[in-house]
């Protein structure tokens, strides 16, 4: 079995992403154990969902036996962010047919989206770049690159989750408080470093403070409805301010 | 493995796959409106931050009064360390170590 040069370039580009994935996937496995999930359940989730934030959101309700509708709706609302990424990547997938297209779609993630999109933009803007028609005729070039990035990241994600769970089995009960903190603490740190926009900061701050009281009032739907309201209101204010300025 | 949980996980996979595959089948080559893109970003961040808050401070729909101060302190410390070191991993380790230490001295 041989891999094209574009596939291998994609694999090399993805190496830093693997290192970013390993601790999050590991923490996901640890948190799944803390919430009482089975090893097979979290590995299956990593393979089928392949989306850290939505998996994190599902751990507590799954462990506590909350309604399926709540979990599915939360998953859908968090992962609907894949829609614009997948739409942007669609032109590069034009060479994929049948199972390859369905696999390509399953592997869409923020990292595979950003790396592939930047790679294509860079190649197209290069002065050595062939004319557009020739690029289109280079069958599957970008798709191979995409598969190099995405398949390896996917394997790291699933394996990292499995190892995280396995490692948590060896942790004594005295460390349970730490296990419970690992994943929410990690996401909070990632967000604190990542978020630059003021409106998005506002969304996060308000959500942080209003989620608990609304979840106490309505354990099943309180925080979910609140998130929808907060995001919609801030988005509305932002649109209004853009129009006004 | 619990059969109900496995079914829910499969359902999660299906609803996620829907948002990944729909543009390939329905709108290849069409650009996504920037305003809607921003709304979806706001929504996903809002949901994840709400889950952070709920998973840290609630247990079976009850506010964990005893543990909440130490977890809040550890969360703030983790974020400060992450911002100072520019590393989310170091921040997470610092917060975890702190919350563990506080739980043992409590």
What spatial form of chain B do the alpha-carbon principal axes imply? extended
Unreliable residue runs of chain B:
none
Terminus-to-terminus distance of chain B: 35 Å
User: Could you tell me the number of beta strands of chain A?
Assistant: 0
Describe the structure.
The complex is a heterodimer of chains A (245) and B (106). Chain A is an all-alpha fold and 245 residues long. Chain A has two domains: 5-175, no CATH class; 195-245. Chain A has twelve helices and no strands. Chain A has helices spanning 5-34, 39-48, 52-64, 68-79, 82-89, 99-106, 110-125, 132-137, 141-169, 176-194, 198-217, 222-244. In chain A, helix 2 packs antiparallel against helix 9 (141-169). The termini of chain A are far apart. Chain B has 106 residues and is mainly alpha-helical. Chain B has three domains: 1-30; 31-63; 65-106. Chain B is built from four helices and two strands, in the order H-H-E-E-H-H. Chain B has helices spanning 3-26, 34-57, 68-85, 88-105, and strands at residues 58-59, 62-63. Chain B has a two-stranded antiparallel sheet with strand order 1-2. The longest helix of chain B is centred in the first third of the chain and has 24 residues, at 3-26. The radius of gyration of chain B is 19 Å and the shape is extended. Chain B starts with a helix and ends with a helix.
How does the SSE layout of this entry go?
The complex is a heterodimer of chains A (245) and B (106).
Chain A: H1 5-34, H2 39-48, H3 52-64, H4 68-79, H5 82-89, H6 99-106, H7 110-125, H8 132-137, H9 141-169, H10 176-194, H11 198-217, H12 222-244
Helix pairs in contact in A: 1-3, 1-7, 1-9, 1-10, 2-9, 3-4, 5-7, 7-9, 11-12
Chain B: H1 3-26, H2 34-57, E1 58-59, E2 62-63, H3 68-85, H4 88-105
Antiparallel strand pairs in B: 1-2
